[in-house]
Amino acid sequence: MTEVxxxxxxxxxxxxxxxxxxxxxxxSAAVLGNYVNxxxxxxxxxxxxxxxxxxxxxxGAYYNYYGEDGAVVxxxxxxxxxxxxxxxxxxxxxxxxxxxxxxxxFTLGTTTTYLSDFMNATVGHHAGETVTVCIPAxxxxxxxDTVQTADSSVDQTAPLATTITAADFKGLYGYDLTGTAVVTxxxxxxxxxxxxxxxxxxxxxxQVEAGQQYTAYDGDFGTVITEVNSVSDNSxxxxxxxxxxxxxxxxxxxxxxxxxxxxxxxGGSNVMYITAVDNVSSPGSFEYKDVDEKYNxxxxxxxxxxxxxxxx
Length: 312
Description:
By secondary structure, this protein is an alpha+beta fold. It has helices at 3-39, 79-82, 116-120, 166-173, and strands spanning 53-62, 72-76, 104-107, 130-135, 148-151, 156-159, 161-165, 180-184, 190-196, 201-207, 213-219, 222-231, 235-243, 247-251, 257-265, 271-277, 285-289, 299-309. Strands 1, 2, 3, 4 and 18 form a 5-stranded antiparallel β-sheet that branches. It has a 5-stranded antiparallel β-sheet with strand order 5-17-16-15-14, with no helix packed on it. Strands 6-13-12-11 form a 4-stranded antiparallel β-sheet, with no helix packed on it.
């Protein structure tokens, strides 16, 4: 083949090569488009209804919706929110590993894992929408009513010594006790803690003086002061008052003022959540419960819908 003939064949093949390249490019674009559409672009024409599977992100708070005044986050699917120390968290909030956060999914009318009002809030909405729902206490996490009233002018009594498990001690103070240590109790006064290896128990002997005031709690939700009136051989007589509390703006049916809950953890199952006061501006009586923080309280959810799919 002469040089001229070779050049002629080359020129004849070039249009064919370019045509094949264009076809391949178009086919690749189509495949990529389908992949993106299937995996990243959600169909906003599908509205959540009975039988649909819904994927969401969410943040749950007490007292108000996340981002609003007074909101206290108790749960979220966002690690960025969970790990942000500037965002006020509930007493029982626990920061988990990052890989434990992410979307959740449920099938409307079938799934029973989550609160029904939470799931039903997505009905009639599509991917890309954000909805809010306030679930009343009676429809949220419900437990027997354990609310009690304490008067700051009436003496209460605590034993001068008590015993808790080693596991409860670690839960309270964050470390395993191997010998003896001085710790600050939920009452505000100190105790000498002694570990008994034979029983795996920790004995707490309170170090408390009559006529003294102790700070039981001083944090984001207020201050709790314990005033010791007398100390006998086996008990402590004291009064407890709540100051600088954060009122939510809600007034209970008995006329008390709801406050952002204050937790006092005495170890084991002996936990007190102060929930209301009779006077926001000065110490008086207060109400408390001994069930977990999330029970018998209204819940405010902000829900971002990621996808909605119908059953095939």
